[in-house]
Amino acid sequence: xxxxxxxxxxxxxxxxxxxxxxxxxxxxxxxxxxxxxxxxxxxxxxxxxxxxxxxxxxxxxxxxxxxxxxxxxxxxxxxxxxxxxxxxxxxxxxxxxxxxxxxxxxxxxxxxxxxxxxxxxxxxxxxxxxxxxxxxxxxxxxxxxxxxxxxxxxxxxxxxxxxxxxxxxxxxxxxxxxxxxxxxxxxxxxxxxxxxxxxxxxxxxxxxxxxxxxxxxxxxxxxxxxxxxxxxxxxxxxxxxxxxxxxxxxxxxxxxxxxxxxxxxxxxxxxxxxxxxxxxxxxxxxxxxxxxxxxxxxxxxxxxxxxxxxxxxxxxxxxxxxxxxxxxxxxxxxxxxxxxxxxxxxxxxxxxxxxxxx
Length: 358
Ligand SMILES: Nc1nc2c(ncn2[C@@H]2O[C@H](COP(=O)(O)OP(=O)(O)OP(=O)(O)O)[C@@H](O)[C@H]2O)c(=O)[nH]1
Ligand SMILES: [Mg+2]
Ligand SMILES: [Zn+2]
Prior knowledge:
Blueprint: H1 21-24, H2 29-32, H3 37-42, E1 45-52, E2 55-60, E3 63-67, E4 78-80, E5 90-91, E6 97-101, E7 109-114, E8 118-124, H4 131-143, E9 147-153, H5 161-169, E10 177-179, H6 186-190, E11 200-205, H7 211-219, E12 244-247, E13 253-256, H8 269-275, H9 277-283, H10 300-306, H11 312-350
Parallel strand pairs: 8-9, 8-11, 9-10, 11-13
Antiparallel strand pairs: 1-2, 1-4, 2-3, 4-5, 6-7, 12-13
Helix pairs in contact: 4-8, 8-9
Bound molecules: guanosine-5'-triphosphate, magnesium ion and zinc ion.
């Protein structure tokens, strides 16, 4: 049977009709633009709903299956499915990509999610709340050109939730802050502005902050398991173990993720600059372009600290993130260079032609 895919193509009327199956999965003109009608029929688009060791769980129009690992895809990606050889399915260009330095001693990059529209950075009004960590998450979202929203859960348990809101608001003028009780129907109302049909939202944060609770609230179902946190230090128990996309009754796609123990940035210089744009602007006023903001004369940053216009703790956080990002990005570039050099040796050994540059 040949399906009629014309409604998925760019230019198809989008007003006054029910969304197509693909639109219900987040399909949009950004993807339609990358493919023509023939390709749509020959290699139907599917979205990666979750990644398992055994393969990628994908869904499309009339398609729901697990394909073997192969395409370098992450949850949220769109693939053009090669039915006969699913391993060679092409990954469509992404609207956005969230990545970090993989935890552990390696320097690999870990892809966290693709094609996300809004990141809900989740923390609780308790000892999980940490400005430096929130800044990392916001930088991660800015780097990926994704709109971040800070969500403060457990407002019902805090004596003074407003103090957490004030502290979170100080991170960036560009990031909305919402405090709520993740249980019940408050989240569906408080997050409605970002959870529109066809949009994809993701919850990121430490274990135990209520990411699955929030996902369930949006899904209007107890679809995802949740678990109480440790009483003594408010740490979660890593209840969620995989990243998985779910569709809400209203047609929004929700990504619940496992709690992150550590978030190290890599190749995120612009994201960091976005969080600390006031400091970056001051640095541009220093007399020397390569000012280290230590003992140089005419340093605008030291002057601002001396005049109480800049919090030295915030300055220290900016420097730490910058140094970490520079270190991780440099080692990544080095690894890529080594891989390229190694590839060359292999190719010359087997007499193959060099691969086309992308
Ligand atoms: N009182 C109250 N409890 C909450 C709130 N949000 C979450 N909880 C509780 O906190 C615990 C942890 O919630 P989860 O949703 O499992 O946390 P998580 O972020 O998904 O944790 P991981 O899956 O381990 O990453 C559960 O017992 C929830 O009931 C809230 O706003 N108020
Ligand atoms: Mg969870
Ligand atoms: Zn300076």
